[in-house]
Write the C-alpha cells for this entry.
Amino acid sequence: MLQHDLRHAVRWLRANPGFTSAALAVLALGIGAATATFTVLHAVVLRPLPFNEPDRIVRIWSSPSGRDLPFFSVSAPDVADWAEQTRTLALVAPYDRQRGVTLRGTGDPEQVMATHVSRQLFELLGVEPARGRWFTEAEDRPGADARVALISHGLWQRRFGGRDDVIGHYLQLDDGRWTIVGVMPPGFAIPNNPAEIWTPLQLLVDPARRSARYLRVLARLRDGITIEQATTELAGIAGTLAREYPGSNATWGVTVRPLTETVVSDTMRRALFIVAGAVGLVLLIACANVASLLLSRATTRSREMAVRMALGATRAALVRQMLVESLVLAAAGGALGVLLAMWTLDALGALALTTIPRADEIGLRPLVMLFALAVTACSAAVFGVMPALGATRVRAEALRTRDSGSERGASRARDVLVIGEVALAMILLVAAGVMTRSFLKLQQRDLGFDPGHLLIVQVAPPPDATPVVFYDGLIAKLAALPGVSSVAGGSSLPFAGPNTANGFEIEGRTFRPGETPDTDFRLVTPGYFRTLNVPLLRGRAITNADVGQSSTIVVSAAFARRFFSGDALGRRVRFTDQPWMTIVGIAGDVRYFGADDPRDEVRPMMYLPYGKRPAPLTIALRTSTPPATLTAAVRSAITSVAQGQPLERLDTMDDVLAETRGPQRFNTTVLAGFAWIALVLAAAGLWGLIAHGVARRTHEIGVRVALGAAPGEVLRMIAGRGVALALVGIAVGLFASAAMTGILQRVLFDTSAADPATFALIALVFLAVAVTASVVPARRALRINPVEALRWE
C-alpha cells in the first residue's frame, strides 16, 4: 500500500506542475537556508574544538583590579607559582605571542608566523604530531642550546612538497637555522595564535621580572573540577602573591575563561544564534506557505475525497495518502534545499572567512546532513497534517455542492497561516532593520583619524640592516613616489597591529605599591599625525629633532584628561628606570581597537619618537589618488630598498576597516537576506490567498457585477480581506518584536532594539507590500465576464 501511495503521490504532483513548482521553490528556500545556517552554527559554535576534552581547557590572564582592561598577559614568575601551588589544574602551559619571521631557503623568501611554546602545551591540547615528535624536556630547559622546531602541515606541503624525509631538515629564519623535529596535523593551530612554526619557549623564571607580563597561558582542569573552583583557587594564590610581592602584585588578580569562549566571543555566539533563530522563522514561514497551498488544493479535492470515501476508502487511508504526498514533496524540496545550501555556503564562506572564527571549518558534514533530513521530515509533518485532516473531513453533500464546512474551515486555517507568516516576517524585518541601523552607525563612527586614501605597508628590515636607517630610507623612497602626499611609520597603526602597554611614573606624584598607572604607547616617526590626519589639540608633534633622543613625547587627549585633568603640557613622566620625558603635545584620541570596542574611548595613549627602542614599523602612506592604484609602484620601491625581503602587508586602510567590521557585516547581511526572503514569502502567501479567493468566488463576483456593483466596491471587498489580515499580522509582529528587544540589544552598537523610527518604517514598508500583494490579484475580479461567471454551474 505504501508503494501504491508513493506512485499515486508522484502522479498527482506531476499532474499539477504549477502547484508542485511553487511548493518546491518555497521548501527549497526554507530548508536550504536552515541547512546553510546550521552548517555555519555547527562549525563555529556547536562543534567542539579539535583538542582532547576541549571543555576542560581554560585560558588564564592576569587581571588588574580597578582598571578598564581585565585581560593582561602573565609574567613568568606568576606562571611558575600558579603551576606549583595549584591543586585544581592538571597542566599549566605558557606560550609567547606569534611574531613574523622571514623563511629563506627553498623558494622565494616568505613571511611566516612563529611562536615560542612550552612543551607542556602539546600534551595539554592532546594533539600528537603527524610526523616526528614534540620537544623534549631537555630542549625546553632554560638556556638549552636546542634550535629545534615543529612546523604546520600547510608549511610542510608548501615549502617542502610534503616530502617524507622532512624530519631533520633545516629552517633558515632571521635568527639562524632551526632543525625540524615534527610536523603537526592538518588544521592544527593554537587558538588566537595563527603560527606555522613552533619553537621551544625555554622559559627563564627571573624573580626580578615579576612585573614583565608578556606570556599567554592555557591550563587543563583536573577531572571533576569546575571552572569556578579553579577560579577561586587561583584568586587565592593571587592574593598570597600580592602580600608577598606588593611591588608587582598588590592589585593583580586572575581571570579564567573556557577556551571556547576565547575563540568565539559571547557577542558572536549570540549573533549567530539570533541568525539561526531568524532562519528558523523563515522555515516556519515556508512551511506555512506550503500548508496554505495544500489547504487550497484540499478544498478543490473535497469531491475527490468524498467519492473515494463513498467507494469504501477509510479516512485513515486517505490521510496516509495525503501525508505521503507531503513527504514526497518535502523530500524533493529537501534535496533541492541541500543543493541550494551547498551553493549558499560558498557565498557565506567567502563572507565569513576573514571575519568569523573557525570559518575555515564550515562544510556539509554528516551531522549537518542529518539535520537537513530532520528538517525535511518535520516540514512534511508541519505542512501535511492539517490539510490532510481537513480534506478528509467531508460529507455526502460535497458530492452535490461547491461550498462545504470543510472549505470554510480551510479558509479560516489559511487566514491564521497568513497572519502567522506576516507576524514572523515582521519580527525578522524589524530585527534586520535595527541591525542595519546599528551597522550604519558603526560605519559612521568617528575613528579619530581619516582612513580614506591611506595605504598600509609592512616589511621587515634585512638581517644586516640597522632598523632606524632602513626605515628612514624606506620612508624617503616612498615619499618620493608620485601621488604620495605624506608618509610616516608607527609601531602599530589603528586596527593594524597588536597593542603595547606599560606602567609609568609621574613626576611629583607617589603611588602605593601595585597602583602604578599604565598606558598604551606607540613608537612613531615624524609626520605620523599629519599622515593619519590626527588633530593636534595643543603643543607640537614629533619632529626630526626628537628622533633617537628620550626627552620628549606626545600624549593623547584621554591621557591628559585621566592623569592631568587636561593640563599635561610641560609635565614629565617616565617608564620605570628610564629617563624623564617631557610632554610637548596633546593629540586627539584615536580608536586603535575594534570600532565597536568602548575601551579605546578611555585608554590613554603615549607617542614616543621612533629610535628610543628597536621595533618593527608599519608604514602609512597618505595618497592624493586612489591608494590601490599605487600598489605596483610601492612594491617596486620596497624591492629596491629591501631586496630579498618578503612584503608582509600591503593593504588599504579601507580594507583593514572592512575586515574589523566583518562580524557585524556578516550578521547584518545574513539577517537582512533572510528578512527579505521572509517578506517575499509572506507577500506570496497573501497573493495566493487573494488569488484563491478570486478563483473560488468567481460565481459570486459575477452575480455582484451583474447586479451593478461598482469596480471599486468589488476591489475593496476582495483586497480588503488581505489588507485586514496583514494589519493583524503586522500588529502581532510589532508586539512580538518589542517583547524580544532584550535578545537583540546585546549585539547592537549605539542603537536601541526598540527604535520607534525603525518599527514605524518597517510597518509602513510591510503594509505597502501587503496592499500590493492583495490588490494585484484582486484586480483579476474586475476582468470577470458576468455572463461567463453566471454559467459556472
User: Anything to note?
Assistant: Residues 97-200 form one domain. Residues 401-406 have pLDDT under 50 and may be disordered.
